Amino acid sequence: MKKNFYITTPIYYASGRLHIGSASSTCFCDSIKRYKKQMGYDTRFMTGLDEHGQKVEKKAEAKGITPQEFVDNLAVNAKELWRKLGCDYDYFIRTTDESHVRQVQKAFEKMLEKGDIYLGEYDGNYCVSCETYLTQSEVGENGICPSCGQKVSKVKEKSYFFRLSKYQDRLLKFIEDNPLFIQPEGKKKEVVAFIKGGLEDLSVSRCTFSWGIPILSNPKHVIYVWLDALFNYLSGLNVYGEDKSLYEKYWLNGECIHVVAKDILRFHAIFWPVFLMSLDLPVNFKLICHSWVLMYGEKMSKSKGNVIYPETFINRYGLDSFRYYILREFPFGDDLTCTPEDYILRYNADLVNDFGNLVSRSLAMSEKYFNGLVHNTKTNNEFLKDLEDVAKKTVENYHSYMNEFRVDKALAEVNALVSRTNKVIDETAPWALFKEEKLDELEAVIYHLLESIRIISILYVPYLIESTPKIFEALSLNNEEKDLLHLTFFNKELYNSKKLEVNLFPREKDPLKAKEEIIEEMAVEINKEY
Question: What's the CA angle centered on 14, arms 10 and 17, to 5 degrees?
Answer without folding.
Answer: 100
